[in-house]
Amino acid sequence: xxxxxxxxxxxxxxxxxxxxxxxxxxxxxxxxxxxxxxxxxxxxxxxxxxxxxxxxxxxxxxxxxxxxxxxxxxxxxxxxxxxxxxxxxxxxxxxxxxxxxxxxxxxxxxxxxxxxxxxxxxxxxxxxxxxxxxxxxxxxxxxxxxxxxxxxxxxxxxxxxxxxxxxxxxx
Length: 171
Known about the structure:
With about 170 residues, this protein is of the alpha+beta class. About 25% of the residues lie in helices and about 40% in strands.
């Protein structure tokens, strides 16, 4: 005589994870999982900043080099929630050709922007990224140029960084 088994029969369950979710081993995204996007983040941020240009009184401010771009970038998932983290610092060299009413260049101004902290902590708190402006040539134009650099130009630079953030959130 055979004894009846009281154990339930196994059931085949297929779990499908979306590409934007965590790994297959983490189907409900409950456990902490982190993906490193440092290479992508560094390259993309550098490209965005290198392409930055802004018109000031008919002249064009452009970034001539992205220097000392250092930091980390990643996307984590925990309990079904995506967490984007990044922390960078960077120095940008810039130049601006000042023009007169006829469009003739009358002066060159050069300098650096320094972002001591571009991070998700600053962004998530609703704060603005700090930007320090230094002049290496054309210092005599600083008194009237500085307010524009610290407001209008800085705001447009921050918008370029926000483009980076939105791209990271899509990862």
